[in-house]
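Lecture 7 notes: from sequence to structure.
We start with the chain below.
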Amino acid sequence: MHACLHVNEILRLIACEVVASGGEATAVALACCCKGFEDPVLDTLWETQYEMIPLLKTFPEDVWNNHKCTVSVQATSVVSSLN
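Predicted structure tokens for the same chain:
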């Protein structure tokens, strides 16, 4: 990796530019293939989340309801078992 990519601020600027240009999938692919991009990309993607729906969709389908934007009680047991 080039020496300039060891500077955290540069990695964060690159991540911000990729995500701002609509390249969320590209940013995720970049984070998956290069450990140095993982934290800047994840931080940038979390900053751009304006809804809880994408996060809720990471739970199994029987836990969330997209129509009513609700989460069943089962989700709390899933989350508490992760802690």
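Points to note: The chain has a mean pLDDT of 75. The longest helix spans residues 8-20.
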